[in-house]
Write a structure and sequence with these properties.
alpha/beta; Rossmann fold; 2 domains; four-stranded parallel beta sheet; 14% strand; globular
């Protein structure tokens, strides 16, 4: 099968290796991968800040760039949640209504696609150490993934997965929230990192790089040695 990939703006600009690792995993399981270099953003930053006209303009561009009726795979549950949950409100009764319905049917977060569409859970990955998983607010509450990332991580050879207390509590990023309310966001990040440390984890893993960016910034500032990793980076590790 040939799939399209949507690489969110911040992944493209800050974490391109994660995008490449997702492509490696998809190709490993037999998917041909198509990437449209004209793609940019889903519009979520503008939408969350209240600039709906700007968000609608960006969203319209997104819809017009994914017209192939193929699966669309994205390494960010937050961005897919934006498209599934808020695009219908932005484009209700618009000329793009039918195109949006097609995209909503086809777009999947990476772990959901692997587990529930391809029915593949063992990628032959290896990562030695102890890890804990962070449920992002968007992934858990807007997109609805919980078990899928854990199913994939449990198959990673050499990796011990330990659940942290309050794993479903927000890390404090929240997009513009961490900019507008820095002290609160840092405090929430601190609590999340402490819960992760209590498990003895060497790695904190998530499906959302936005959360990991926030937590990694705090850990580096505090000289905490725990490493943050996106699920796709883990699944592309240690292949024979």
């Amino acid at each position: 099968m040939i799939v399209d990939i949507f690489i969110p703006c911040f992944v493209d600009q800050v974490y391109p290796d994660t995008a490449l690792n997702m492509v490696k995993v998809l190709e490993r399981v037999g998917c041909g991968v198509n990437y449209n270099p004209e793609q940019t953003c889903c519009g979520q930053p503008a939408f969350n800040a209240g600039y709906w006209d700007a968000a609608r303009e960006v969203g319209e561009k997104f819809i017009r760039e994914f017209q192939n009726d193929r699966y669309i795979i994205c390494p960010s549950a937050s961005c897919v949640g934006m498209i599934k949950n808020y695009y219908p409100e932005m484009f209700h009764n618009s000329a793009l209504h039918n195109e949006l319905k097609s995209i909503q049917k086809n777009i999947f977060e990476f772990s959901d696609f692997m587990v529930n569409v391809l029915k593949i859970t063992d990628l032959g990955a290896r990562l030695n150490g102890v890890a804990t998983y962070h449920d992002s607010c968007a992934g858990l509450r807007e997109y609805g993934i919980k078990r899928e990332p854990r199913i994939l991580l449990e198959k990673v050879r050499g990796l011990e997965l330990r659940e942290m207390e309050d794993t479903e509590v927000c890390c404090g990023f929240g997009g513009t929230f961490s900019v507008k309310f820095e002290n609160i966001a840092v405090g929430m990040g601190e609590q999340k990192v402490k819960k992760a440390q209590e498990t003895g984890a060497e790695y904190i893993i998530s499906t959302d790089l936005s959360c990991l960016m926030h937590l990694d910034g705090y850990m580096k500032h505090q000289n905490i040695g725990m490493k943050s990793m996106h699920l796709a980076d883990v699944l592309a590790s240690g292949w024979d």
